[in-house]
């Protein structure tokens, strides 16, 4: 309660177990149309500050807050009409939101922006005796902690355990913040016998610092540029988009077609493997016709993953704003 949520580094296994229990309880209560859920954050206000494109993260946070009875504010007509347009800096914009809201969800293109926001927010909180917290919705190519929480929750939901799983992450592992956060969070859960397989072309490999950290935490890491090396042993296949916005158009063109998940790829994969994707997807899952074929495969669970995002964010908002209430 009362903590900023900026990095997966903040989470231990007991924290994750507590959060996942809360998410399961919230999911059950939502399915029973339990009106009591709307008392949990009644009277609280969430500010949504998104300086980068978003569909799922923004909508699911807003839906979560409303389903818990809270209110949501954002700059009318979008951030492009905020005072940032007049040249205001992030620190001041965040402090404005901090005066009006109890929790701020921030997505910003700069790595470390959530830490900067939290620093200035803490100063403001001291000054006006407030307790506004910040939750990161992604900081550039850095981290995306709430996505990792919902991804890990989904793996537990589908597999019941992390122990002895072979988890294969494919695509833009260099710039994809979801895979940075997820691989660290898996290690922080301290599972037994997990294998992480990173499949990427040379130019898009997982940052060496993350690979080294995982190995220090006794996770078995395999790096390859050939999916066939690890597909047959994979229990989880986590596919990602090449982060087009982080490249020049020429660079993007040379790598965009390197890994494409097609129905025939799944034909060669284990029958009980699950396919995850943080979405949005583009041609890394082929054409719209391929999308339809992939979606029809029972192993494709990215829509469940997407829905879990709301349950996890509801649990997180409840914990951060109300403590052990759920
Ligand atoms: C991801 C993101 O924004 O990092 N999307 C999401 O939040 N579900 C993944 C992506 O943009 O590729």
Let me know the number of strands.
9
- Any idea what the radius of gyration is? 20 Å
Poorly predicted ranges (pLDDT <50, ≥5 residues)? none
N-to-C CA distance:
12 Å
User: Mean of the pLDDT scores?
Assistant: 96
CATH topology of the largest domain, which one? Answer: Rossmann fold
Ligands bound to this protein structure: N-carbamoyl-L-aspartate
**In CATH's first tier, which class of the largest domain applies?**
Alpha Beta
- Global morphology: globular
The CATH architecture name of the largest domain reads 3-Layer(aba) Sandwich
Order of helices and strands: HEHEHEHEHEHEHEHEHHEHH
Q: Sheet bearing the most strands, described? A: 5 strands, parallel
Question: What features would you describe in this structure?
Answer:
The protein has 326 residues and is of the alpha/beta class. The protein has two domains: 8-143 and 307-322, Rossmann fold, CATH 3.40.50; 145-305, Rossmann fold (3-Layer(aba) Sandwich), CATH 3.40.50.1370. The protein contains twelve helices and nine strands. The protein has helices at 13-31, 56-67, 90-100, 113-128, 145-159, 177-188, 208-216, 228-231, 249-255, 263-267, 288-295, 302-322, and strands spanning 45-50, 71-73, 103-108, 133-139, 166-170, 195-199, 220-224, 236-239, 274-276. The strands form two sheets. The protein has a five-stranded parallel β-sheet. It has a four-stranded parallel β-sheet with strand order 2-1-3-4, with helices on both faces. The longest helix has 21 residues, at 302-322. The chain starts with 12 loop residues before the first helix and ends with a helix. It binds N-carbamoyl-L-aspartate.
